[in-house]
Amino acid sequence: MATSAVSGVNSISCTTSISSISSFNNFRSKNPNLLLGKMSFLLYNWRRRSFYVSNVASDQKQKMKDSSSDEGFTLDVFQPDSTSVLSSIKYHAEFTPSFSPEKFELPKAYYATAESVRDMLIINWNATYDLYEKMNAKQAYYLSMEFLQGRALLNAIGNLGLTGPYADALTKLGYSLEDVARQEPDAALGNGGLGRLASCFLDSMATLNYPAWGYGLRYRYGLFKQLITKDGQEEVAENWLEMGNPWEIVRNDISYPVKFYGKVIEGADGRKEWVGGEDITAVAYDIPIPGYKTKTTINLRLWSTKLAAEVFDLRAFNDGDHAKAYEAQKKAEKICYILYPGDDSLEGKTLRLKQQYTLCSASLQDIIARFERRSGNTVNWDQFPEKVAVQMNDTHPTLCIPEILRVLIDVKGLSWKQAWEITRRTVAYTNHTVLPEALEKWSLTLLRELLPRHVEIIAMIDEELLHTIVAEYGTEDLDLLQEKLNQMRILENVEIPSSVLELLIKSEEGKEQAEEQKEEEQEEGKDDSKDEETESVKAETTAEEEETEVKKVEAEDPQAKIERIFGPDPNGQQVVRMANLCVVGGHAVNGVAEIHSEIVKKEVFNEFYELWPEKFQNKTNGVTPRRWLSFCNPELSEIITKWTGSDDWLVNTEKLAELRKFADNEELQSEWRKAKRSNKMKIVSLIKEKTGYVVSPDAMFDVQIKRIHEYKRQLLNIFGIVYRYKKMKEMSPEERKEKFVPRICIFGGKAFATYVQAKRIVKFITDVGATVNHDPEIGDLLKVVFVPDYNVSVAEVLIPGSELSQHISTAGMEASGTSNMKFAMNGCLLIGTLDGANVEIREEVGEDNFFLFGAHAHEIAGLRKERAEGKFVPDPRFEEVKAFVRTGVFGPYNYEELIGSLEGNEGYGRADYFLVGKDFPDYIECQDKVDEAYRDEKKWTKMSILNTAGSSKFSSDRTIHQYARDIWRIQPVELP
Description:
Elements (H helix, E strand, L loop, with lengths): L4 H6 L10 H10 L1 H16 L10 H10 L14 H14 L10 H30 L3 E5 L9 H8 L2 H10 L4 H5 L11 H15 L4 E6 L7 E5 L2 E5 L12 E12 L2 E4 L5 E4 L2 E13 L6 E10 L7 H5 L3 H12 L12 H30 L8 H4 E6 L6 H12 L4 H11 E4 L10 E3 H7 L1 H22 L4 H11 L2 E2 L5 H27 L10 H4 L4 H12 L3 H9 L8 E3 H8 L2 E4 L2 H11 L1 H6 L4 E3 L6 H7 L2 H11 L21 H26 L8 E6 L8 H16 L3 H7 L3 E6 L7 H17 L9 E6 L4 H10 L2 E4 L11 H7 L3 E4 L5 H8 L5 E2 L7 H9 L7 H11 L9 H5 L15 H20 L1 H13 L6 H13 L8
Parallel strand pairs: 1-2, 1-10, 2-9, 10-11, 11-15, 15-16, 17-18, 17-20, 18-19, 20-21, 21-22
Antiparallel strand pairs: 3-4, 5-8, 6-7, 8-9, 12-14, 13-14
Helix pairs in contact: 3-5, 5-6, 5-8, 10-41, 15-16, 15-18, 17-18, 18-19, 20-23, 28-29, 29-33, 29-40, 30-32, 30-37, 30-39
């Protein structure tokens, strides 16, 4: 047995008490050798051990025992105290310098603390990695263009169970843990719910001990930093990497070539080879992801792009043509500059495709290399799906499918049939949207130019699909077949392959021959007397017979007929439907909420569902209760632990349901309100810091924080606020106080830089706020605040203190939502439509504890049709709001385009496609019910408790268990 690392650390005691910045600097200057010696010994004890690791699976125990017999060490349980933590922080402040040595200020304290935590994560990461390698267990790989992580420090030490020791150590250094943690910038690797879900999933994978990794891109600037000025939203580059990232470990020894452009050649053996073009290098950066109360630490591997040294044009540089010399380098590096670069231009579209392929190519090369290494001397490719599961988070990683096929066929020499079977068993697809613009379609011309071999492979997949469709539906009804092909093909508006064309032509020829034979038989059976008919009788041929005769005369030959029916539209664009490729190329397709999954099956992919019903599943999203309740809301978490009897709810959220039996308890309600008040005070401080506004904590905090989009209907919210403000202005002070509950209406979220209408909505919200917040007649009865640069860290402050949260998307358009789960988990009441996860949340928390309004999903198509036919009659209150805005009360900005989108009966950008006007009267009447409920303090508190109790279903742990069981088919692997 190895000497305990804890005992080794505890033997190191500092002879000098360090309780302030000045004493630290003094200690550092006077005792450099002492500090170096102690820290070297500390790190030696942490890092010197080889690890004996064993699997919980019984069939692997003996194998692990045998393989580790020569190692002689076990993985000790290392739980440092504040003294050893203090030594570690001091070591990194001195010997892992990111800052000048003269000062130990907050930024330096943060980096030294983070690097100290990272040391412990690396210990567990190495042990986890070693165990996965030795066991060769099946592993899941989660590919996503976004990972919206938020700050890592508090989450890491919380999962490690070291919050107390780190808080104590930093106090001795003169700082609080909270102040140090606030120095960490949010990692700019995501935008919204898609990326935050991916990060919650990583947390749950590690906590549940599932062998799984995440793969993404290391964006230098992320999406953008949002500024709110007098002109609305402005975007500047996010500088999150400016001071470095202490959590990442660059793996200079792990890099892969990625190719673009070039051409495809065929060798003498018939094997295709992709040659020439533009070559870049993807380098791995690893971020350890710790599980909660487990030694399992999994990996998020991010790719950064650069140019290989041998490709640099040294001749051009020496000749003074520096622009030419740097051209290739800039092309390589810019791939990982920005998350979702604007794609209005050809250059933007090309860059997005390069990003997507870089993620797929580098990740799959890494995955395949790991599979081959674990397989040893004999690689059985048929075992690949038994060892590897690849999950595509939305359509961005779709190129995984042709990339796997390319590697297996062109590089590894497998047949098409074998490679296709392997690929389909390996890959799965999560659909996150029903919006047509988000179901990616890429220009075939652009894709063929950028990835010529992949287009060939996609065409082969499309051909395979066409044969399946023809076999399923037959060729008797060509109109039906054409409809199915148009809806299901991967290559839209592209000529059908010759093999399918020949099949259809032969079928048509067969039908014509059968028809001719039938006519001949009918002719032979006619009575001879008909030959003696007079000319006058022949002249009485009916119109129907004449029409038949004309058809015969004008009949096309079979090939022309088939080409006419199934040929492409010469005026249409040729595109690749990435979502269709995902469905065809994978073994599982899942929606992310019950209602969304039904829409996926019945509408979005109905034809595929009819063909392959076994592929389609539901996996309702979830959020990690560690970050989104325990760490961001410690006051409420302590109360939950007290009343449920333990902190088991952190890994088993079903325990939250036990709060239901205490919902009427006055003691609990008092504690609950106290915690909410404390969290509201944090929001007051945040708003003052971010906007300068001073708001009252006595008002209701009404929050809508999410990506700015027309379907999420921030416009409905702000129109409701405008209506409320107008009514207030029409009343006396006494009437206002009697009628309205004081509210602070808080917005947050980013509008995509090129989404003009969304940016108009941001501008309108800020203009309304500027007017309302400075109106002395209104005072604290109503405030409107837009918190700039919304991110995870802002959400971690806003969500615990919120009292009403708005999830008011047009029914049937939000796939799931996860912020609704976070709000409910923190005891916030929801107002919303029956959309996404709202449906299930309402079922769990109780109908009486959810403020419901609006049209239902099955009504939306009919309501839009009614609008197009001019039958919609807007509510007078809605017209009143629009007229009020047009008076210029909120400033000189011309909002005609914004309001115009809500008017008219048809046309792009008009006709109120998202039904703001339709749902408006129901919405404001529902808000009256909110006011009424809020006035009853006991009732509101009980509803709040029941929301937390009812959120037990919405843990990402539960979701990951379902993925692991139903899609990935992997088992937990736990370090002893």
